[in-house]
Sequence to fold (885 residues):
Amino acid sequence: MSNFLLDNEDIQFHLKTLPLEELAAIQEDGFRDAATFDYAPANAAEAAENYRRVLELVGDIAGNQIAPLSEEIDREGSTWCDGVVTYAPGIRRSLDLLAKADMMGFTLPRKFGGLNCPSTVYAAATEMVSRADAALMNVFGLQGIAETINAFANEDQKQRFLPRFSTGAVTGAMVLTEPDAGSDLQNVQLRAFQDAAGQWRLRGVKRFITNGCGEVLLVLARSETDEQGGMGLSLFVLENNEQVRIRRIEDKLGIHGSPTCEMQFNDVPCELVGERRRGLVTYVMALMNGARIGIAAQGLGIAEAAYREGRAYAYHRQQFGKRIEQLAPVADLLVDMKTCIEAGRSLLYYTCTVVDRDINLQRRLDEDKYATPEAKSADNKAQKQYKRLAALLTPMSKYYCSELSQKCANDAISVMGGSGYMRDYHAEQLFRDARITTIYEGTSQLQVVAAIRGVTSGTAEKMFAEFDNRETADQEEQHLREALGTMRGKLQEAVEFVKKGGADYLELSARAMVDVAIDILVGYLFLEQATQSEHKKVVAKRFIRQALPRAKARMELVMSQERSTLDSYAEIVGAMVEEEG
Amino acid sequence: MAYNSVVLIKQVPDTKKITVRAMNDDGTVNRSALPAIFNPEDRYALEAALEVKERHGGTVTAVTMGPPAACELLREALYMGTDRVILITDRRAAASDTLATSYILACAVRTVGNYDLVFCGRQAIDGDTAQVGPQCAEKLGLPQISYVEELVELKGKTITVRRDVGNGYEVVRCKMPALLTVTDTFQEPRPFSAKALMRSKHARAKLELEKEVAAALPGADDKAKAAEVAKRAAALEAKKLLIGQWTLDDIKADLAWCGRDGSPTKVKRIQSVVLKGSGYVEYKNTEADITKLVHQLIDDHTIG
Fold:
């Protein structure tokens, strides 16, 4: 039993070094809530103090109350009977706790009962909840549904739905996926139509819906019959009711506490959110971006839990007359896990600070209460830049942190050997729970597709250049900066090369280039942190010295035009032989 | 109808974290070596009071007697949803045994006044006497129900609860006002509320303000310091964030009943018991030896 904030020096380091006061200033908009709400901060320093205290509270609940329930949640899982889904008792209990602690309206405005925290703080909270129980994080992390309602629904809808999210009276589900529309959401077929009275109704089937039993559903549906692409889709909101049949819940590899539902809509009445045709292209994209940050935090939480399992075992387990963590191959696994977790956290938090600036500037522009046109145009310009950066960093974070969770869960079992494979230990659950993170909210492959645009367009290189703006007298640091410079050169060379090689070769090489871009960015972030911490100096050195040869190898492969996947697929894979019967 | 509750809480050394430094050489507890925590069963008592408020409305007042550091405990009570908190602090209360403590707390409860229920934890983990709650009830002339683990019903002026009787439970009903002592089999205490935490994090007692002002204005004279304290206290009071601070005079306590003078308990001797392992007994895997082992375990109350 421990507090998941107080036992985690790295998160505490970030809370000391992140620009929390600056984020608070744009989030709180002149701290005008202080006049109306007794729990609103009066200034940036108080807001930052609130963030730290709230996270300490999340750490306490996650570590001391939720984590002990995780194994039971995994073993019992969610159950389905005659269309009714029941959470594992530990999920119910955890949600009650989080609701009582006011954690279910984490980012919502105070006028709807929320805490109005920036997404950076929410991400840190999500990581700790996920470290305690990855399945619970799915319901906790679905607060993005309320955020979407807050961003795009009308005032009346906000008043009706949002306060109940904040109190924890309701949870939500984002109802997007269908049997034939998974990664390809443009192909959603569930029909939305208006009856004779003009009432919108939904008809069709949705599949793989996390928390489909939630009380408020946001449904992506085809409202324009004449339009087959994404522009034919709109977003609808409704209270879950008997007309929505939950046909089954999935029997999954992991996250057993999170019910995954198949849902049938039988002409169910619903309300349009925002404008028609903008369902996918605007609203779901915004929802997804928030959800991807959430999954990145979930991955990080699982990785942290796995690392700690492995470390504790390696410390206590003796073989060959010593602790196994004193054996180089085991030590290497642990050092690598720890470094990568710190890398993931740096990447995620940096991403969140950009996202917070993007969201808050957008909100300010929407409100349009500028004193001068110059002020507006300055915000406009800055917001465009942050939006572009967010579009690069969000998929990078989701990709890196979710892959990280798998790596760490896997390596923890390697450290623990046979014991790690046994159900007596927590590692095997983490291994199963981690697997989904690289799949939902867009697979790793899709994150790469999203991120590569920013890498080839020059957005990434521009960002690196901004980090590289500082002279340093420190030889060691200079050396590491040069290594990052070399990596940038190799990446740029590959980008130029690939651009000439056709769309399919770009697609094939994208992952290697995104990997290198992430390593460069993390390298710069570590160097910034190294100015404030001796520990980070060591970590930065380790990370960059390992990243340089990795980048060289990856870019060499790209430059070599190794096209066998494209050119020799049929030859290597052979013809498909269907099994008989 | 709504019910007003007073909860008596205590800050205690965390006896779960005993280390070698936890005992002084003379056998007394070295309080500085142990973290100070919310007495565990007092949290359940507070939970019970908050549950009453949640179901029926009313107010919850938490009272503690202790040194200035006990303000942290009162802030935690605020974070859980307590409406009003009061610190009884007075050097003349030092060295109070359970009789004197319960006398002082009873005076405090009377001073709070207008209550329907008084809640206490069953016992504190430092003294483990379980006497203060029942003694308070006697001094206040209230009916008492000890070992409460569930609030069954509050209706009009009667309360029905379930209490643990060791090998089972009984459901008892009594007239209010009444005093209840609550065990850790009551429902889990609620977590801090984030909003309450944000609201009440700067709640301070006057003696804390004095300390803060002394640190902030080291060169100022006493008058200036007092004025600054009064200013800060008024600002907190306006936001309902001033922690009540009472002396024995404020609660009209008879000093003869307080502190060392009011404490008939005399410590005759403190013994520092150090357990040492010595030798071992070997039991063979035979019927006779196992019987012997079982008898041995029953005799020393390890089992049975």
